[in-house]
Write a structure and sequence with these properties.
Strand content: 15-25%
Radius of gyration: 22 Å
CATH class of the largest domain: Alpha Beta
Largest sheet: 12 strands, mixed
C-alpha cells in the first residue's frame, strides 16, 4: 500500500526519470568525461589531496550541480573535488613526490596518516570529552556533549553520497578505524537514554544515515519507538542527501519505504527533524530537489537547513540571503550558519570571525522575519556553540561580542562575553578576553559532565549533571 500523504513523483519535471547512482573516487575519477576540461596539474591535485582527505562524488553532483565551464573555480566543484591549496604546501609536496616516484601503497598510506594526525582529526573534545560511559565502559558510537542531545553514529551510515571537501567528520571516511565513531545496534543507546532522562533529542549522524537502506535505518529507529522512552521528544537525522542525491526520496528502490519510516516516527508522537546541509544556491535549483523536499514534508517531518560559511564557496552575503529565501519558499527552516571547524582544510575555507559576522549581518538585513530563524555565525568549539554577536566598542575598548547558543554547562547559554578585537582570528582559541582579563568566564571553573548520575550530591552544582572542578 502506498503512503497516502506522500506526494507522487512527476517524472516529467525531473532532469532524469530514474537515474542510477554512480560514485566516483580516486580510482575512477579520471573516467568522468568533464575531467578532460581540467589542466593536468588540476587533475593531479585531485589525486594528491584525495590521498589525504576523503574524496567521493557522484553523477548527480557532476551532471546537475557543477558548472564545468567555470571549473576548477566553480563553487560546487570546490565543494566536492579536492584542490591543491586544501593541503599545506609541505604536505602537498610530500604526497606529490611519492606519487611521482611511484611509491608503494604502504609508503603512501604511512605519509597520509602522519599528515592526517597533524590536521586535528577530532576537534572540540570529541574523543576525550564527548564519549559517555555506560556501566563504567565507554559507549561506542555515541557522543553526549550537550545535556539534552545525544549523537548516534550507526555503523552502516558512515559514508555519504558525496563528500564535502570541508567536512569536519573526514576521519570517519579515511580508514582511521581507531578513532572512528560507529555503533552496530541501538541497544546501548536505549539503555543510555533510560539512564539519562535529561536527554530529549537523538541526532542520527555520520557520515550520512540516509545512505542506509530504509530497512537498516528502521533497525535502529524502530527499537527507539518501541522502547516508549518518556524523555525522548525528537529524532534528528543529519543528512546531505537532499543536496547530493535527492533521488533517495524519489526513485531509489526503497524511497517509499524510507518515507513510510519518517511517517511512522511522526505518528508515534515524536518530532522528526531532517537536518539538511545546503552550502550553495546551486543545490536548491533542481526539479529533483524540489520534489524531494515536498515528499519529505508530506510525511510530517520538518526540514531545517545549515551550512558553514566557506571561503571560495559561499562567502557572499547576497548568496546567503538568496539561499535562506529559497529554503523558506520550499518550506524549509534556516537553522545555522556555522564557522568552519578547526580541522582538515580550515586554513583554506576559514574566514576571520569579524568578516564572518559582517557577512551574516548583511545577509540577515536582506531577509524578512520568516527567514530569521537562522543563527550564526556559530563556532562548535570545545566548550559549546559560540555565536559572534558583533564588534562593539565598549568605552575605549574595541571588542568582539559573543555568547553561547549551547554549552557543556547549561548556565553558560545566552550569557554574553567579550573578546579583544582581532581582525585575523578565525577560531575561539585565537581570541583573548577583553578589558584586561586573563581568562574567559568559562575557563575559570572548568566542568566535566557527570554521565553516571543526575542526583544532586555534594560534588554536583545546580546544573544537574555537571561536576565542578576547582
Amino acid at each position: 500500500m502506498s503512503i497516502s500523504i506522500t506526494a507522487p513523483i512527476n517524472a516529467r519535471h525531473l532532469s532524469a526519470a530514474s537515474p542510477k547512482y554512480r560514485a566516483f573516487n580516486l580510482r575512477n575519477f579520471r573516467k568522468i568525461p568533464q575531467i578532460e576540461r581540467l589542466s593536468a596539474s588540476d587533475a593531479f591535485a585531485v589525486e594528491v589531496v584525495g590521498n589525504v582527505l576523503p574524496f567521493r562524488a557522484n553523477n548527480y553532483v557532476i551532471d546537475e550541480l557543477i558548472d564545468w565551464d567555470k571549473a576548477p573555480d566553480d563553487p560546487m566543484f570546490r565543494l566536492t573535488f579536492p584542490q591543491r591549496n586544501m593541503l599545506r604546501p609541505r604536505h602537498f609536496d610530500r604526497i606529490a613526490n611519492l606519487l611521482l616516484d611511484d611509491a608503494d601503497q604502504k609508503m603512501l598510506q604511512t605519509a597520509a596518516t602522519e599528515i592526517r594526525w597533524q590536521l586535528n582529526p577530532h576537534p572540540a573534545g570529541q574523543l576525550d570529552k564527548n564519549v559517555p560511559r555506560l556501566d563504567g565502559k565507554r559507549v561506542q558510537g555515541i557522543q553526549h556533549k550537550y545535556r539534552e542531545t545525544v549523537l548516534f553514529f550507526p555503523s552502516q551510515g558512515q559514508t555519504c553520497h558525496a563528500f564535502c571537501s570541508f567536512c569536519f567528520r573526514w576521519p570517519q571516511f579515511v580508514g582511521m578505524e581507531d578513532i572512528k565513531f560507529v555503533a552496530k545496534e541501538a541497544d546501548a543507546l536505549i539503555r543510555y537514554l533510560r539512564q539519562h532522562p535529561e536527554v530529549t533529542d537523538v541526532l542520527f549522524t555520520g557520515g550520512d544515515p540516509l545512505v542506509m537502506t530504509a530497512k537498516n535505518l528502521a533497525a535502529y529507529i524502530d527499537p527507539l519507538l518501541e522502547a516508549n522512552l518518556p524523555n525522548l521528544r525528537t529524532i534528528r537525522i543529519g543528512s546531505k542527501s537532499l543536496s547530493y542525491w535527492p533521488y533517495r526520496f524519489l526513485t531509489d528502490r526503497d524511497a517509499d519505504d524510507l518515507l513510510r519510516l519518517f511517517e511512522r516516527i511522526v505518528k508515534s508522537g515524536l518530532h522528526l527533524a531532517i537536518m539538511a546541509h545546503f552550502n550553495h544556491t546551486a543545490e536548491l535549483k533542481t526539479a529533483a530537489l524540489e520534489q524531494a523536499v515536498r515528499r519529505i514534508r508530506n510525511t510530517g517531518a520538518v526540514i531545517r537547513t545549515q551550512s558553514p560559511l566557506l571561503r571560495h564557496i559561499n562567502d557572499d552575503a547576497n548568496m546567503w540571503a538568496e539561499m535562506w529565501r529559497k529554503q523558506v519558499s520550499l518550506g524549509m527552516i534556516p537553522y545555522y550558519m556555522f564557522v568552519v571547524r578547526d580541522t582538515g582544510a580550515q586554513h583554506y575555507f576559514g574566514l576571520p570571525l569579524v568578516e564572518a559576522w559582517h557577512i551574516f549581518q548583511q545577509a540577515y538585513q536582506q531577509v524578512s522575519g520568516i527567514c530569521r530563524t537562522v543563527r550564526g555565525p556559530s563556532m562548535s568549539a570545545s566548550p559549546g556553540k559560540v555565536q559572534v554577536l558583533g564588534v562593539p566598542t565598549v568605552g575605549q575598548d574595541r571588542t568582539i561580542a559573543l555568547r553561547f547558543l549551547q554549552a557543556r554547562n547549561p548556565n553558560w547559554v545566552q550569557r554574553p562575553f567579550f573578546a579583544r578585537y582581532d581582525a585575523k582570528a578565525i577560531w575561539l582559541d585565537e581570541l583573548r578576553p577583553a578589558f584586561g582579563k586573563s581568562r574567559f568566564f568559562y575557563e575559570e571553573r572548568p566542568v566535566e559532565f557527570n554521565r553516571q548520575s543526575l542526583q544532586v550530591t555534594g560534588g554536583i552544582d545546580e546544573n544537574l549533571g555537571y561536576v565542578i572542578r576547582t
